[in-house]
Amino acid sequence: MPELPETETMARDLHREVAGRRIERVAVHRADVLRETDAKELARRTRRATIVRAWRRAKLVVLDLSSTDRIVVQPRFTGALLLDRGGLADAERRFSTVEFELGADLSLHYRDIRRLGTVTLMSAERWSGYESALGPEPLDPSFTDSYLSALLRGSSQAIKKFLMDQRRVAGIGNIYANEALWRAGIDPSRAARSLGGDEVRELHGAVRRVLAEAIESRGTSFRDYRDPTGQRGGFSAHLAVYGRGGECCSRCGARLVETHAIDGRSTVLCVWCQR
Predict the structure, then answer these.
(1) What is the pLDDT of residues 215-268, one digit of tens each?
(2) Is 2 tagged catalytic?
Protein backbone atom coordinates (compact mmCIF):
# COMPACT_ATOMS: atom_id res chain seq x y z
CA MET A 1 0.00 0.00 0.00
CA PRO A 2 -0.18 2.23 -2.02
CA GLU A 3 -0.81 -0.12 -4.93
CA LEU A 4 -1.61 0.49 -8.60
CA PRO A 5 -4.87 2.46 -8.12
CA GLU A 6 -3.34 4.75 -5.51
CA THR A 7 -0.13 5.46 -7.42
CA GLU A 8 -2.12 5.93 -10.64
CA THR A 9 -4.26 8.52 -8.85
CA MET A 10 -1.15 10.27 -7.55
CA ALA A 11 0.50 10.31 -10.96
CA ARG A 12 -2.55 11.62 -12.83
CA ASP A 13 -3.11 14.41 -10.32
CA LEU A 14 0.54 15.37 -10.30
CA HIS A 15 0.80 15.44 -14.07
CA ARG A 16 -2.01 17.99 -14.24
CA GLU A 17 -0.39 20.19 -11.60
CA VAL A 18 3.38 19.91 -12.07
CA ALA A 19 4.07 19.06 -15.73
CA GLY A 20 5.89 22.05 -17.17
CA ARG A 21 6.99 23.33 -13.77
CA ARG A 22 10.66 23.94 -13.08
CA ILE A 23 12.35 22.71 -9.90
CA GLU A 24 13.73 25.85 -8.28
CA ARG A 25 14.99 24.38 -5.01
CA VAL A 26 15.29 21.00 -3.30
CA ALA A 27 15.23 20.55 0.48
CA VAL A 28 16.00 17.10 1.92
CA HIS A 29 14.65 16.82 5.46
CA ARG A 30 15.18 13.07 5.93
CA ALA A 31 17.96 11.69 3.77
CA ASP A 32 17.30 8.05 4.72
CA VAL A 33 14.57 7.85 2.05
CA LEU A 34 17.06 8.62 -0.73
CA ARG A 35 18.42 5.85 -2.92
CA GLU A 36 21.27 5.96 -5.44
CA THR A 37 21.90 9.62 -4.61
CA ASP A 38 22.48 11.95 -1.69
CA ALA A 39 21.01 15.33 -0.80
CA LYS A 40 23.69 17.35 -2.61
CA GLU A 41 23.58 15.33 -5.80
CA LEU A 42 19.78 15.31 -5.85
CA ALA A 43 19.74 19.10 -5.60
CA ARG A 44 22.51 19.53 -8.18
CA ARG A 45 20.97 17.24 -10.81
CA THR A 46 17.36 18.36 -10.44
CA ARG A 47 17.59 22.08 -9.75
CA ARG A 48 16.44 24.15 -12.75
CA ALA A 49 15.17 21.01 -14.51
CA THR A 50 11.60 21.04 -15.80
CA ILE A 51 9.17 18.24 -14.92
CA VAL A 52 8.10 16.94 -18.33
CA ARG A 53 5.71 14.25 -17.19
CA ALA A 54 4.37 12.49 -14.10
CA TRP A 55 3.29 8.91 -14.65
CA ARG A 56 3.03 5.51 -13.02
CA ARG A 57 4.83 2.21 -13.52
CA ALA A 58 3.88 -0.70 -11.24
CA LYS A 59 3.60 0.86 -7.74
CA LEU A 60 5.98 3.70 -8.60
CA VAL A 61 5.35 7.35 -9.35
CA VAL A 62 7.84 8.59 -11.96
CA LEU A 63 8.74 12.21 -12.70
CA ASP A 64 10.47 12.61 -16.06
CA LEU A 65 12.81 15.62 -16.10
CA SER A 66 14.03 17.73 -19.00
CA SER A 67 17.57 16.66 -18.04
CA THR A 68 16.55 13.04 -18.97
CA ASP A 69 16.92 12.01 -15.31
CA ARG A 70 13.93 10.50 -13.54
CA ILE A 71 12.78 10.94 -9.96
CA VAL A 72 11.29 7.56 -9.00
CA VAL A 73 9.13 7.45 -5.86
CA GLN A 74 8.08 4.20 -4.23
CA PRO A 75 5.59 5.17 -1.48
CA ARG A 76 5.31 1.75 0.13
CA PHE A 77 3.22 1.81 3.34
CA THR A 78 2.96 5.42 4.48
CA GLY A 79 4.32 7.52 1.64
CA ALA A 80 2.43 10.23 -0.23
CA LEU A 81 3.25 12.99 -2.70
CA LEU A 82 1.50 16.14 -1.50
CA LEU A 83 1.04 19.46 -3.25
CA ASP A 84 1.55 22.53 -1.09
CA ARG A 85 0.34 26.01 -2.00
CA GLY A 86 1.15 27.35 1.44
CA GLY A 87 -1.61 25.59 3.33
CA LEU A 88 -0.16 22.14 3.97
CA ALA A 89 -1.21 20.98 7.42
CA ASP A 90 1.48 20.87 10.10
CA ALA A 91 0.58 17.22 10.73
CA GLU A 92 1.66 16.44 7.14
CA ARG A 93 4.57 18.90 6.94
CA ARG A 94 6.32 17.40 9.96
CA PHE A 95 6.69 14.11 8.06
CA SER A 96 7.99 15.73 4.86
CA THR A 97 11.21 13.98 3.83
CA VAL A 98 11.95 15.76 0.54
CA GLU A 99 10.52 19.04 -0.74
CA PHE A 100 10.71 20.25 -4.33
CA GLU A 101 9.99 23.96 -4.70
CA LEU A 102 8.30 24.52 -8.07
CA GLY A 103 8.03 28.30 -7.96
CA ALA A 104 6.80 30.84 -5.45
CA ASP A 105 3.29 29.37 -5.36
CA LEU A 106 3.80 25.59 -5.28
CA SER A 107 5.92 22.91 -3.60
CA LEU A 108 5.78 19.14 -3.85
CA HIS A 109 6.50 17.15 -0.68
CA TYR A 110 7.29 13.47 -0.37
CA ARG A 111 5.68 12.76 3.02
CA ASP A 112 6.43 9.42 4.65
CA ILE A 113 5.46 8.80 8.27
CA ARG A 114 7.44 5.58 8.77
CA ARG A 115 10.02 6.38 6.09
CA LEU A 116 9.81 2.95 4.49
CA GLY A 117 9.32 4.37 1.00
CA THR A 118 12.10 5.65 -1.24
CA VAL A 119 13.03 8.51 -3.57
CA THR A 120 15.52 7.43 -6.22
CA LEU A 121 17.24 9.54 -8.86
CA MET A 122 17.88 7.54 -12.01
CA SER A 123 19.51 8.31 -15.32
CA ALA A 124 17.64 7.23 -18.44
CA GLU A 125 19.95 4.22 -18.79
CA ARG A 126 19.52 3.19 -15.16
CA TRP A 127 15.73 3.48 -15.43
CA SER A 128 15.69 1.35 -18.58
CA GLY A 129 17.45 -1.50 -16.79
CA TYR A 130 15.34 -1.15 -13.66
CA GLU A 131 12.04 -0.98 -15.52
CA SER A 132 12.84 -4.02 -17.66
CA ALA A 133 12.74 -6.24 -14.56
CA LEU A 134 9.12 -5.31 -13.84
CA GLY A 135 6.23 -7.42 -15.09
CA PRO A 136 3.51 -6.36 -17.53
CA GLU A 137 0.85 -3.82 -16.61
CA PRO A 138 -2.49 -5.56 -15.91
CA LEU A 139 -4.53 -2.72 -17.45
CA ASP A 140 -2.52 -2.62 -20.66
CA PRO A 141 -4.46 -3.87 -23.73
CA SER A 142 -1.70 -6.41 -24.39
CA PHE A 143 -2.40 -8.06 -21.02
CA THR A 144 -4.97 -10.52 -22.31
CA ASP A 145 -6.34 -13.64 -20.65
CA SER A 146 -4.18 -15.72 -23.01
CA TYR A 147 -1.11 -13.78 -21.89
CA LEU A 148 -2.00 -14.35 -18.24
CA SER A 149 -2.57 -18.06 -18.92
CA ALA A 150 0.93 -18.34 -20.38
CA LEU A 151 2.41 -16.62 -17.31
CA LEU A 152 0.60 -18.96 -14.92
CA ARG A 153 1.36 -22.17 -16.77
CA GLY A 154 4.78 -22.90 -15.33
CA SER A 155 4.36 -21.59 -11.78
CA SER A 156 3.74 -23.63 -8.65
CA GLN A 157 3.46 -20.47 -6.51
CA ALA A 158 0.21 -19.80 -4.69
CA ILE A 159 -1.90 -17.74 -7.07
CA LYS A 160 -2.16 -14.85 -4.60
CA LYS A 161 1.62 -14.69 -4.18
CA PHE A 162 2.01 -14.91 -7.96
CA LEU A 163 -0.26 -11.91 -8.53
CA MET A 164 1.72 -9.85 -6.01
CA ASP A 165 5.12 -10.67 -7.55
CA GLN A 166 6.08 -7.45 -9.35
CA ARG A 167 8.31 -9.41 -11.74
CA ARG A 168 5.25 -11.35 -12.91
CA VAL A 169 2.49 -8.72 -12.90
CA ALA A 170 3.13 -5.09 -12.01
CA GLY A 171 1.15 -3.02 -9.53
CA ILE A 172 -1.00 -5.55 -7.67
CA GLY A 173 -0.55 -5.71 -3.91
CA ASN A 174 -2.32 -7.37 -1.02
CA ILE A 175 -5.59 -5.42 -1.16
CA TYR A 176 -6.40 -5.99 -4.81
CA ALA A 177 -5.06 -9.57 -4.94
CA ASN A 178 -7.53 -10.46 -2.18
CA GLU A 179 -10.38 -8.67 -3.93
CA ALA A 180 -9.71 -10.07 -7.42
CA LEU A 181 -9.46 -13.66 -6.18
CA TRP A 182 -12.73 -13.33 -4.28
CA ARG A 183 -14.46 -11.93 -7.34
CA ALA A 184 -13.09 -14.76 -9.47
CA GLY A 185 -14.07 -17.42 -6.88
CA ILE A 186 -10.52 -18.77 -6.64
CA ASP A 187 -8.82 -20.01 -3.46
CA PRO A 188 -5.72 -17.78 -2.93
CA SER A 189 -3.60 -20.79 -1.90
CA ARG A 190 -4.03 -22.73 -5.15
CA ALA A 191 -0.99 -23.23 -7.35
CA ALA A 192 -1.01 -20.76 -10.22
CA ARG A 193 -0.58 -23.51 -12.81
CA SER A 194 -3.65 -25.36 -11.50
CA LEU A 195 -6.10 -22.80 -12.86
CA GLY A 196 -8.17 -23.94 -15.84
CA GLY A 197 -9.01 -21.83 -18.86
CA ASP A 198 -12.35 -20.57 -17.54
CA GLU A 199 -10.79 -19.72 -14.18
CA VAL A 200 -7.99 -17.76 -15.85
CA ARG A 201 -10.56 -15.77 -17.83
CA GLU A 202 -12.53 -15.05 -14.66
CA LEU A 203 -9.40 -13.97 -12.82
CA HIS A 204 -8.20 -11.81 -15.69
CA GLY A 205 -11.53 -9.99 -15.81
CA ALA A 206 -11.67 -9.64 -12.03
CA VAL A 207 -8.18 -8.13 -11.83
CA ARG A 208 -8.88 -5.56 -14.51
CA ARG A 209 -12.32 -4.63 -13.15
CA VAL A 210 -11.27 -4.21 -9.53
CA LEU A 211 -8.27 -2.07 -10.49
CA ALA A 212 -10.34 0.11 -12.82
CA GLU A 213 -13.08 0.57 -10.21
CA ALA A 214 -10.53 1.44 -7.54
CA ILE A 215 -8.94 4.06 -9.81
CA GLU A 216 -12.40 5.52 -10.40
CA SER A 217 -12.79 5.77 -6.60
CA ARG A 218 -9.30 7.32 -6.34
CA GLY A 219 -7.85 4.41 -4.40
CA THR A 220 -8.31 2.86 -0.98
CA SER A 221 -7.53 4.68 2.27
CA PHE A 222 -7.34 2.92 5.62
CA ARG A 223 -4.85 5.06 7.52
CA ASP A 224 -2.11 6.93 5.69
CA TYR A 225 -2.83 7.00 1.95
CA ARG A 226 -3.74 10.47 0.64
CA ASP A 227 -3.94 11.80 -2.89
CA PRO A 228 -1.78 14.84 -3.79
CA THR A 229 -4.42 17.25 -2.47
CA GLY A 230 -4.56 15.41 0.87
CA GLN A 231 -7.88 13.65 0.23
CA ARG A 232 -8.68 10.03 1.09
CA GLY A 233 -9.52 7.38 -1.49
CA GLY A 234 -13.08 6.06 -1.55
CA PHE A 235 -12.74 2.41 -2.56
CA SER A 236 -12.70 1.08 1.01
CA ALA A 237 -16.52 1.26 0.93
CA HIS A 238 -16.50 -1.28 -1.93
CA LEU A 239 -14.10 -3.87 -0.51
CA ALA A 240 -15.67 -7.32 -0.36
CA VAL A 241 -13.03 -9.18 1.67
CA TYR A 242 -9.92 -7.18 2.53
CA GLY A 243 -10.08 -6.01 6.14
CA ARG A 244 -13.33 -7.93 6.69
CA GLY A 245 -12.10 -11.16 8.28
CA GLY A 246 -14.81 -12.67 10.52
CA GLU A 247 -17.63 -10.83 8.75
CA CYS A 248 -20.19 -12.42 6.44
CA CYS A 249 -19.44 -13.01 2.77
CA SER A 250 -21.65 -10.69 0.73
CA ARG A 251 -22.08 -13.42 -1.88
CA CYS A 252 -23.07 -16.48 0.15
CA GLY A 253 -23.35 -15.33 3.77
CA ALA A 254 -20.61 -17.61 5.14
CA ARG A 255 -18.09 -16.19 7.58
CA LEU A 256 -14.95 -14.85 5.92
CA VAL A 257 -11.69 -16.44 7.09
CA GLU A 258 -8.50 -14.46 7.68
CA THR A 259 -5.12 -16.20 7.57
CA HIS A 260 -1.43 -15.32 7.27
CA ALA A 261 -0.44 -18.78 6.05
CA ILE A 262 0.08 -18.05 2.34
CA ASP A 263 2.70 -15.31 2.20
CA GLY A 264 2.84 -13.86 5.69
CA ARG A 265 0.39 -11.15 4.67
CA SER A 266 -3.27 -10.98 5.61
CA THR A 267 -5.37 -13.13 3.30
CA VAL A 268 -9.16 -12.97 3.62
CA LEU A 269 -11.33 -15.46 1.75
CA CYS A 270 -14.62 -17.28 1.69
CA VAL A 271 -13.94 -21.02 1.90
CA TRP A 272 -17.38 -21.71 0.38
CA CYS A 273 -17.19 -19.34 -2.59
CA GLN A 274 -13.49 -19.68 -3.43
CA ARG A 275 -12.32 -23.05 -4.69
Answers:
(1) 999 999 987 899 999 999 999 999 999 999 999 999 999 999 999 999 899 999
(2) yes
Q: Would the pTM count as exceeding 0.85? A: yes
State the catalytic residue, choosing from 45, 56, 59, 168.
Answer: 59
Contact 169, 177 (CB under 8 A): no
Convert the pLDDT of each residue in 2-22 to its tens digit. Answer: 999 999 999 999 999 999 999
DSSP for 38-66?
-HHHHHHHHTT-BEEEEEEETTEEEEEET
Judged on CB neighbours under 10 Å (0-12, 13-18, 19+), 273 is buried
Active-site residue, 3 included: yes
Does 188 participate in catalysis according to the annotation? no
AA letter at 108: L
Question: Is-catalytic flag, 265?
Answer: yes
Please name each of the domains of the chain with its CATH number: 4-124 (3.20.190.10), 145-269 (1.10.8.50)
